[in-house]
Specification:
globular; OB fold (Dihydrolipoamide Acetyltransferase, E2P); 51% strand; five-stranded mixed barrel
Length: 81
């Protein structure tokens, strides 16, 4: 089974004061809920996402508490297939 590297998701929640820094929670049709850090090492955009925005998450890993993305960016017109 081939697993895609990128997942389109919609940002549902922004947590600005998380235990390990700011992060966001997004929902993907393929995986369900995915969290990702808003640290520049993970979030590659200069602006932060807002609730309701489409993002592309990659390098996703399964952890005991759920899915975590190791890279995120805004969804762009070139992402449409």
């Amino acid at each position: 089974m081939s697993i895609p590297n990128d997942y389109q998701a919609i940002v549902n929640k922004i947590i600005s004061d998380g235990k390990h820094g700011p992060y966001a929670v997004a929902h993907s049709e393929e995986l369900g809920w995915i969290t990702f850090s808003l640290d520049p090492a993970v979030w590659s955009e200069s602006d932060l996402p807002e609730c309701g925005m489409y993002v592309v998450l990659s390098r996703v890993r399964k952890k005991p508490a759920g899915w975590r993305a190791q890279h995120g960016r805004f969804f762009q017109p070139s992402d449409k297939q």
